[in-house]
Amino acid sequence: MQRESWQRTHTCGELRAEHAGQRVTLNGWVHRRRDHGGLIFIDLRDRYGITQVRFNPDVSGHALEEARELKSEYVISVTGTVEKRPEGMVNPNLATGEIELAAEELVVLSPARTTPFPIDDRIEASEELRLKYRYLDLRRPEMQKNLLLRNRLYQAVRSYFAANDFVEIETPFLMRSTPEGARDFLVPSRIHRGKFYALPQSPQTYKQILMVAGFDRYYQIVRCFRDEDLRADRQPEFTQIDVEMSFVTREDVMSMVEGLMAHIFRDILGEELQTPLRRLTYDEAMRRYGSDKPETRFGLELVEVSDVVRDSGFKVFRSTVDAGGIVTGLCLPGGARYSRKQIDELTQFVLQQNGKGLVSLKVGENGLEGGVAKFLSDAEKTGLVKSFNASAGDLLLLVADEPERARTVAGALRLHLGQREGLIDTSRHELVWIVDFPLLEWDEDEERYVARHHPFTSPMDEDLSLLDTAPEKVRAKAYDLVMDGNEIAGGSIRIHRRELQKKMFSLLRIGDQEAENKFGFLLEAFEYGAPPHGGIAFGFDRLAMLLAGRSTIRDVIAFPKTNRAVSLMDGAPSDVDPKQLEELGIAVIPEDKD
Ligand code: ASP
After folding, report:
1. Which CATH number is 43's domain given?
2. Domain that holds residue 321
3. Of all atoms in ligand 1, which is nearest to the CA of residue 494?
4. Tens digits of per-residue pLDDT, 32-44?
5. Is the backbone of residue 461 left (phi > 0), alpha (psi -120 to 50) or beta?
6. 216, 531 in Cβ contact below 8 A?
7. What is the CATH number of the domain that holds 406?
């Protein structure tokens, strides 16, 4: 193919000392211009790097004058000769720092307006501005690095699955609405007026049907859509690595995932991941960390002391335990130095987490001190110190509440203190499985059980008999993978027998009619020979975020929406032409303003 004279021969990250003497052409954006009177230096940037271009009177001629007009972010083509930089002028911070380009010809390919913020990693622009001008934000080396990592992650995932006999299959985006969990995004049909498609919250039913179809190892990197209420760092559309396998047990799925994670760690981080990964039961995670997605890279584990304070003279402890609640908490080493004000702040934090209050006890040379200590017997005091293995100078922080709330609140406090005290070892990643989740959850508002994972999740075989007697005690063949305190994947072994599925629906108070309506096609498919199967889905964005060392998924998504589900760049969601609505037979009811 003929190269036009302005077209690049090399990228801006490519030239080294060995290219000295060659005549080359570079294309890119003017990153910075430095005017030294007779001499002009341009840092020319593309996604591969930055190359210094020098315009000087000897060789640049007319181009020197033109270079004076260049501004930041102009797109230019420069042709010239590669020169080794003189000793002492080498820039070790730049991959191309050994050379510079002595410009002979300059072509402005496109001028640029002054950008609303500098294209620089040390950016101070608000995120709103960055999202509105996302194409400028994405020019920054840091953001380019994030998206390139995301790209490598796609490749690592695909190569692992390809090597392990998985089949990549696309499932529809326009599907039947089967709301379960989050709200569906609806798409009106023009051809079938008054009818709607839904965008998939996940390809769950399709992937299970693919198992019935005989594709025993399926995966897909797939967009999912959930019209959830706005929560921090959620996106209405997000990407999953979706997986389903036939003729497998929980162990098979988990070891496949461990292989995938080891492959990703090797490929993306150049690290060996130790497998098998650690496992915690849901119960243990809640007791020790007060969370089903525990940050395990620091200690400060919770210790339950209900037995120690069961008969306490401190009424809050005694009455909580009497009423079936618990007293749990943690010991902050050296925390006795905390001032009154700092402890008040911790109490405020506990209240914000819906806790009832916080009891703090300083450990002095002679045992426990502090307001509440005077209500405690000597046996209680020594019992508490012993339970926490506390020493003089430590601080005990306790909460009393019904079990789940007490644990969650204490867990949130643990994480808060871990962050505040800089206890979390962020130099490494830690992966842990959470297993044996409860199958069901009681929904106070609806006064019925709901599936914790989804209605197709299988109960543990050994708990089947409890389905009738104590459903809340039934554990599920479900598993979550937690990385650095974030849930990055979750899945389960599914129910493949119709009888059990029926029972599950009745427990969830999903009537025959409703089940037929929502999942009839899946239930029918199961009647034609369904293999035992199970799977998992990864939050791809979250995984990419953690691997890139970022703290929001927006940093690894090219065009994310804000926390208010708005796209600031193109202004979605927006009004539409009334004609479009008319064609669809839709009328919008204006919002009640009062
Ligand atoms: N479809 C489930 C989800 O999106 C994951 C799974 O069970 O495979 O959470």
Report:
1. 2.40.50.140
2. 298-424
3. 7
4. 999 987 899 999 9
5. alpha
6. yes
7. 3.30.1360.30
Classify burial at 407, counting beta carbons within 10 Å of its beta carbon; exposed 0-12, middle 13-18, buried 19 or more.
buried
Tell me the per-residue pLDDT of 243-258, one tens digit each, with 9 for 90 and over: 999 999 999 999 999 9
Among protein residues, the one whose CA lies closest to atom 4 of ligand 1: 202
pLDDT of residue 519: 85
The residue whose CA has the least distance to atom 7 of ligand 1 is 491
Average pLDDT for the chain: 94
Average pLDDT over residues 572-590: 94
Residue 415 included in any domain: yes
As for how many domains the chain has, the answer is 2
* Confidence label for 371 from pLDDT (cuts 50, 70 and 90): confident
Which contiguous run of DSSP H or E holds residue 410? helix 403-420
| pLDDT reported for residue 491 | 97
User: The pTM is what?
Assistant: 0.94
Atom of ligand 1 nearest to the CA of 535: 8
- C-beta contacts of 15-21 below 8 A and 24+ residues apart: 15/51, 15/82, 15/96, 15/99, 15/101, 16/96, 16/98, 16/99, 17/84, 17/98, 17/99, 19/82, 19/99, 20/82, 20/83, 20/84, 20/99, 21/81, 21/82
Ligand 1 atom 8, closest CA: 536
140 CA from centroid of ligand 1 (Å)? 34
Asked whether residue 65 is domain-assigned, the answer is yes
**Domain end point (choices 372, 405, 424):** 424
Residue 296 Cβ contacting ligand 1 at under 6 Å: no
